Amino acid sequence: MATPLVVSEVAKSFTMHLRDGVRLPVVANVSFSVRAGECVVLGGPSGVGKSSILKMLYGNYGVDEGQILVEHDGRLVNLATAEPRTVLEVRRATLGYVSQFLRVVPRVCALDIVAEPLQARGVTAGDARERAAELLSKLNLPKELWSLPPATFSGGEQQRVNIARGFITDHKILLLDEPTASLDAKNRAVVVEMIAAKKSAGTALIGIFHDEEVREAVADRIIDVSEFSPRRYAA
Amino acid sequence: MSAVPLLKVSDVSKFYGSRIGCRNVSFELYPGEVLAIVGESGSGKTTLLSCLSTRLMPTSGVVEYHMRDGQYRDLARMSEAERRFLMRTDWGFVHQNPADGLRMTVSAGANVGERLMAVGDRHYGNIRAAAGDWLRRVEIEEDRIDDQPRAFSGGMRQRLQIARNLVTSPRLVFMDEPTGGLDVSVQARLLDLVRGLVHDLGLAAVIVTHDLAVARLLSHRMMVMKDGAVIEQGLTDRVLDDPREPYTQLLVSSILQV
To answer: Where would one find the signal peptide in this protein (chain A) (predicted)?
Structure first.
């Protein structure tokens, strides 16, 4: 269990069929691994493929080549080729994700959105909501908002709902796509503290952080994604 | 995670004379899994749904269902009586037009209670209580139990149709454009309701829709159909966020952003 995530020789390109089939290579030969209790930060300029890598790790983007091996339920699963229901099972139990933007479900209130991943793992509604409330208070989301659907929340408020939802479980691997982008200094500090707690609990974290201060505070290692530029391998 | 599929579909094709309805469709559906079939009008999605649910006989191919006794049965080889019993008890079918799935001139309570009587329930008080409970679960006030669905709005009729289908605790529900023709606010309420019920009851469902937002909200997996064939399939968010096929890319890029 020391290395719950191993990425090996992953390549990804997009073929834009609506633009005469032009092929856009995104990354090639992506290889790295993440140990339990470690926070690896994907670095490099915008457009270099950081978010695409995270999305492949989550099964949200298809993978052209290579393997993404995740230790799940005592066995290794290759997410690059896994069946949809296996990917969903890995997401439920092993692999968490804090996306940049919250995808809201009509009529579901903030507290229930946060509690949902715990309920999906069999925790009772009452206990899950209690834990959700703790996290939302920690992230300073005003209590008046908890019972409202987050569609009308500000960017920073939605992001805190998203963070609470991602951090509520004890998933062994957690992917973070700029979780602090629209937060103020006080809440950024809360998130840094929450990441530190995950690390000491043995979670493997892979994140994108544009904020230098946050990056310095959480990163054990920075991987320069421009190393995986397809142009380097084109010849 | 359940190890055996509820429905096994192998190489199903349906021809209308020389015209193709759907061709060579194969997939497996597991308990608790929600599959969306998307594609434009005429792509074969409703034909496929009809073949799966025994409303049409496929021209070729096999659809097998995992019965409660643990055996797989080829649906085409069942007797008409067995198929109808399955439809009334273990399955549900939610039509786009509620009038096709409801009896419009009997009361809301009787519409729900009828399915219970089909599985052998005879106690009037129990049936009425169950009907009332289901009306509440689909957010219809219990004092409407004696009203006919003719007197209901479109959204209420659709919710009543869902209650009628779910009251017998089916394991598999087919839905044909369940939110088609409803106002967006009514749609949102219905989607949220369906999403909650499917999750709470652990239902497997096959949902035909041309609305990709509905597919994203309700389904785990998606199949994209064009000219009768499945051209792309996979995890719903993968298909929508990283569409591979030209037609899927066209569909996804045609979604109106709000």
So the answer is: none
Contact A173, A94 (CB under 8 A): yes
C-alpha B107/C-alpha B218 separation (Å) is: 30
Q: Which domain holds residue A48?
A: 1-93+207-235
Q: Could you give the domains of chain B? A: 1-90+170-258 (3.40.50.300), 98-169 (no CATH)
Give chain B positions within 8 Å (CB) of A55.
Answer: 241-242
**Residue pLDDT, tens place only, A173-230:** 999 999 998 899 999 999 999 999 999 999 999 999 989 999 999 999 999 999 999 8
Element (H, E) at B251: helix B246-253
Indicate which CATH number applies to the domain containing A76.
3.40.50.300
Q: What is the ipTM of this complex?
A: 0.92
Using one digit for the tens of pLDDT, what is the confidence trace for A26-37? 999 999 999 999
Q: What is the distance between the alpha carbons of residues A146 and A69, in angstroms, rounded to a whole number?
A: 37
A contacts of B220 (beta carbons < 8 Å) = 84-85, 88
- What CA–CA distance (Å, rounded) separates B112 from B138? 12
Sheet holding B7-16, edge to edge: B19-29, B7-16, B60-66, B72-74
A177 closest CA partner among A36, A27, A51: A51
CB-based contact (8 Å) between B188 and chain A?
A: yes
Q: Are B8 and B63 in contact (CB under 8 A)?
A: yes
The answer to whether A59 faces chain B, any CB pair under 8 Å, is: yes
Domain count, chain A: 1
Structural domain includes residue A16: yes
**DSSP reduced 3-state for B59:** coil
Q: Per the structure block, which two tokens stand in for A92?
A: 């439920």
